[in-house]
Give the backbone structure.
Amino acid sequence: MGRRSDVVAGLAFLALGIGACVGGGRLGFGSVHAPEPGFFPWIGGVLLVGLSLCLVVRGWRQGGAPMPAEGEWARPAMLLAALILYVPLLELVGYPITTAALCVAALRILKTRSWWVTVAVSLALAVGTFLLFHRGLGVELPPGTLFSRG
């Protein structure tokens, strides 16, 4: 086997992409002109599966690089855990809060220097994408069962 780190990372992201496809499929697809909440997660999952397969093949064909040291796995593992938690929390808490929290976690894991930058970028991303999809494209995003009226 070639670059084991690429193969392992590719397989991990392959599993994540398959999970995104399954989760998006459960939310419903709709169509290109009338997308439902699962449309974009499913498309993202398909893209992630394709890119992951490319990484696995590339890693398999290339030679020589050793696996990263044990300490180098902590940050990617934390990021993967945050992404895995994002999916079930999305329905429970809702898109804006969950997306902002995921962005905060990712930026802190990537060691962003300033909390102000982390919070500003996270809020801008969550609000900006919410406005783009909900208001601009008319895509209904999960409001969250904790905050829904009913």
Q: What stands out?
A: Helices lie at 4-27, 39-61, 74-93, 95-109, 115-136. The first helix runs from residue 4 to 27. Residues 70-150 form one domain. The mean pLDDT is 82.
